[in-house]
Amino acid sequence: MRKGLAVCCTIGCFLPLLMGCAANPTGFTPGPLKPCPDTPNCVSSMDKRETYAVEPFAYDGDWPAERDRLVEMLLKMKRIEVVAVAERYVHAECRSLIFRFVDDLEFYFDTDENVIHLRSAARVGHSDFGVNRKRVDEMRRLWVKGQ
C-alpha cells in the first residue's frame, strides 16, 4: 500500500511540471512580449521605439476564436511552424528559404484592448534586411483580409 501511495504522490507532483513543459517546449514565456534588442532584426507592437514599432492586430470577436483563426492563418503560410499555443499566447518559428535561419514569431492577446500584440525577431545575426517587418506587413494584410 505504501509503495502505491508513493508512486501516486510522485506522479502527482511531477505531472503538472511535465504538462507545463509539453504546453510550451520553446522556453518562451507566455505573456507580454519583451522589447526588441538593439539590433535591426526585430519588430514588436509592444516596443515603443520607432525603429522597432509596428501596430498590433485588432480583432472584434471572441479572443479564443480569434486565436484559432490566427493559428489557422499561420499554418497556411510557407515555412512557418506553430510550436506553442497557450491561453492568450502563440509562438511560431519561421525558417528562411535558403539558409534555414530561424526567426521567432510571438503573439499575445490583450483582451482588455482587443488587440493581438506581436513580435517577430531573428535568433541570430545583426540585420535581417527588413524580413521581419515585411513578414508582419504581409500577415497584417492576410489578417485584415480574413475579417
Give, in order, the helices and strands.
HEEHEEEEH
Shape: globular
Task: Please state the average pLDDT score.
Answer: 82
| Biggest pleated sheet | 6 strands, antiparallel
Descriptive notes:
This protein is α+β, with helices and mostly antiparallel strands and 147 residues long. Helix content is 35%, strand content 24%. The chain is built from three helices and six strands; from the N terminus they run H-E-E-H-E-E-E-E-H. Strands 1, 2, 3, 4, 5 and 6 form a six-stranded antiparallel beta sheet that branches. Residues 1-25 have low confidence and may be disordered.
Brief descriptors of the model:
single chain; 147 residues; alpha+beta; disordered N terminus
Could you outline the blueprint of secondary structure elements for this entry?
Layout: H1 2-23, E1 42-44, E2 57-58, H2 63-76, E3 80-85, E4 89-95, E5 102-110, E6 115-122, H3 131-146
Antiparallel strand pairs: 1-6, 2-6, 3-4, 4-5, 5-6
What would you say about this model in short?
The protein is an alpha+beta fold. The chain has helices at 2-23, 63-76, 131-146, and strands at 42-44, 57-58, 80-85, 89-95, 102-110, 115-122.
